[in-house]
Amino acid sequence: MGLRTLLYYVGSSRYGYSLYMPLAALLMTSVVVAPQLPSFDFTGLPQILWSGKYAIETANVRFTFGQEAPGRPTVRVDTVMTVKTQDKPFTGRILVPRRRWGDSQSGNPGWNLALTVDKASVALRPISERGTMNVRPSGVAEYSSDLAFDQQFQPRRTYVIRTQVTLPVGKTGYEGKERITGMWVGGEVPLDQFQMSFAYTQNDVFGLPTVAMGDATSGTGLSGSLQIGNSGSFVRLANFTPPGDVITFRYFPPALD
To answer: How far apart are alpha carbons 98 and 144 in whole angstroms?
Structure first.
């Protein structure tokens, strides 16, 4: 548009004059603010690497919203995954995602989480001392400092793997008014039954939340699966192929900062 976008024409040639005003003066009361890139920490479903033959019968994720202090919302994330092995024993490395979305200065997350296999606690270790950082298509920086341990799997057995962690809820959207959390869902084995549930009250979430895949802000086939009730919402899918990406949950709080 060039100069024409900076000028506003007022007047008429029949009076022998033309008046141009800077368009910026007309925008003084309407400042355009770019959306804030998402900034939040998240974990994910455990993944079994170096694996033998097995099936994931159920994978359930529950997000329970609360407040560490007024204006400081948190979410407790509980995962329960049921794994059924087949005919041969094998050693599998169980990897637990520990991720952060932010900017170039955010750095790798260093928080810990609890993990059990058949109710026995397991000591996790970082798979890398330095972690990694990649820039996603949206421009947000994704930091990874995943945790892992090695597990002996016996044949024809069912194992229950549980994780739990409490994290601050992140911010996104225009002026960072929208809230965001999520879960990395990856792995090579389809999930026979997959459910994500979100427990909250009207003091936590205002209006209708959305779920989305990856960098998308809504939709991508998941929002239509979101069932919403008075005390929360959930997504339940059968024969779900892990997307190898984060599934986000976005909402507005009752009182904006």
So the answer is: 6
pTM reported for the whole predicted model: 0.84
130 to 120, 144, 145, 256: CA distances (angstroms) = 29, 9, 7, 36
Q: Which residues of the chain are modeled with pLDDT < 50?
A: 1-30
pLDDT of residue 220: 58
**Cα(9)–Cα(15) distance, rounded to whole angstroms?**
14
DSSP one-letter code for 85: E
Burial of 233 (0-12, 13-18, 19+ CB in 10 A): buried
The rounded distance, in Å, linking the Cα atoms of 130 and 58 is 33
User: What are the backbone dihedrals phi and psi of residue 60, each rounded to the nearest 5 degrees, phi first?
Assistant: -120, 135
Q: How far is CA 195 from CA 19, 43, 222, 234, in A?
A: 63, 16, 12, 7
Per domain, the residue ranges of the chain are: 1-32, 35-252
Q: Indicate the class that CATH gives domain 35-252.
A: mainly beta
Residue from 194, 185, 147, 159 nearest 54 by CA: 159
